[in-house]
């Protein structure tokens, strides 16, 4: 008889999860929470305290345990002088699900633990091919799909940080001009924790790419929500961006700044239906089961359920 399929995750509801913060202090002020909040997200102190404080405690436990495992391995190899390699966290999920907010909160909370004062955050958009190269490959309308990234460069970058290279540079993407910024870099200098945030960070290895960046993660988070909710968040954010980013004369989307709600919603839905939802369904969501932990958001953006990998 075939064994029953069992979920690799333990499910924890919000109330139980909130209790798991234990004695972890709640160090953030209202102003700090404001500064992490993404456009259109109702993040507040209660959300940080009940969802992200327990998560920061759990990741701290993983970081301590991983450090000990590395020490034991170095002891076994009789290479005790070697440097401790950073703990690497991946954060995945759809466009407009709020990954950047989760990443910014974790960067701040994790840096408050005495074991990991230096936490650096990098988003994978810097590893998108520049528009010129997307054009050459005929994939301009596939931005955000796995093939639109220089996966080798991303893997090289994370490998070098993990190997303890003193200074490693990541290219920078501008949402405003919708392209890579020439000669601008984020410099990563031997952090205790590196957070890598992006749509496709949990993609598995393949014949063509035998090692994936996800193979270098010590912990990963998938930010999850219903597709219909994410579409609504995407549309609302697009409407909001008309008054801010799109009004900037340098914005790639400046032609949308003067559209009324109806016309702008139609454009947002077109982007969603042609690019972002297919990418979510075909590439991103299938990687959810590979995460260490899934944060499940309800339609008000609040996390109501946490899934933690048990196998
Ligand atoms: N067209 C745009 N112009 C300016 N900022 C944008 C644009 N699209 C997205 N952003 C910003 O870029 C960041 C990343 O967005 P996204 O990739 O959708 O991930 P997420 O919403 O999961 O953080 C967010 O802070 C978002 O507000
Ligand atoms: C830049 C992105 C591909 C996300 O990059 P990430 O940092 O998640 O790798 C995405 O936010 C985006 O702009 N997608 C293009 C389609 C759109 O504008 O909706």
UniProtKB/TrEMBL annotation:
Listed Pfam families:
PRK
- Pathway participation: Cofactor biosynthesis; coenzyme A biosynthesis; CoA from (R)-pantothenate: step 1/5
- Reaction it catalyzes: (R)-pantothenate + ATP = (R)-4'-phosphopantothenate + ADP + H(+)
Class of enzymatic activity (EC top level): transferase
The protein's UniProt keywords, in alphabetical order, are: ATP-binding, Coenzyme A biosynthesis, Cytoplasm, Kinase, Nucleotide-binding, Transferase
So where does ATP get bound? 93-100
Question: EC number(s) for this protein?
Answer: 2.7.1.33
Q: Which InterPro entries match?
A: P-loop_NTPase (IPR027417), PanK (IPR004566), PRK/URK (IPR006083)
Q: Where in the cell is it found?
A: Cytoplasm
Q: Which domain of life is it from?
A: Bacteria
SUPFAM superfamilies this protein is in?
A: P-loop containing nucleoside triphosphate hydrolases
Molecular function (GO) terms listed? pantothenate kinase activity
Q: Where is the Phosphoribulokinase/uridine kinase domain?
A: 88-226
Family statement drawn from the similarity comment of this UniProt entry: Belongs to the prokaryotic pantothenate kinase family.
Name used for this protein in its record: Pantothenate kinase
Gene source species: Leucobacter muris
Its ancestry begins with:
Bacteria, Bacillati, Actinomycetota, Actinomycetes, Micrococcales
Query: Gene that codes for this?
Result: coaA
């Amino acid at each position: 008889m075939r064994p029953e399929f069992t979920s690799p995750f333990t499910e924890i509801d919000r109330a139980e999860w909130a209790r798991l913060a234990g004695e972890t202090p709640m160090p953030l002020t209202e102003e700090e929470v404001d500064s992490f909040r993404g456009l259109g997200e109702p993040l507040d102190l209660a959300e940080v305290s009940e969802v992200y404080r327990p998560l920061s405690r759990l990741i701290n436990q993983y970081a301590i345990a991983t450090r000990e495992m590395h020490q034991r391995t170095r002891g076994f190899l009789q290479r005790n002088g070697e440097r401790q390699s950073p703990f690497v966290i991946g954060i995945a999920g759809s466009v407009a699900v709020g990954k950047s907010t989760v990443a910014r909160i974790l960067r701040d909370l994790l840096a408050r633990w005495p074991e990991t004062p230096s936490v650096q955050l990098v988003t994978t958009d810097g590893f998108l091919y520049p528009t010129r190269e997307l054009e050459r490959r005929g994939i301009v309308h596939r931005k955000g799909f796995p093939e639109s990234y220089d996966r080798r460069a991303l893997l090289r970058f994370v490998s070098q940080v993990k190997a303890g290279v003193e200074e490693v540079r990541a290219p920078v993407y501008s949402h405003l001009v919708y392209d890579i910024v020439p000669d601008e870099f984020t410099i990563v200098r031997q952090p205790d924790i590196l957070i890598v945030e992006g749509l496709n960070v949990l993609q598995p290895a393949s014949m063509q790419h035998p090692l994936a960046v996800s193979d270098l993660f010590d912990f990963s988070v998938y930010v999850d929500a219903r597709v219909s909710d994410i579409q609504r968040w995407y549309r609302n954010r697009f409407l909001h961006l008309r008054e801010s980013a799109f009004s900037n004369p340098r914005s790639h989307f400046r032609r949308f700044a003067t559209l009324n709600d109806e016309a702008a919603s139609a454009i947002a839905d077109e982007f969603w239906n042609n690019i972002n939802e297919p990418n979510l369904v075909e590439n991103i969501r299938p990687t959810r089961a590979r995460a260490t932990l899934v944060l499940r958001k309800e339609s008000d953006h609040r996390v109501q359920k946490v899934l933690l990998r048990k196998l």
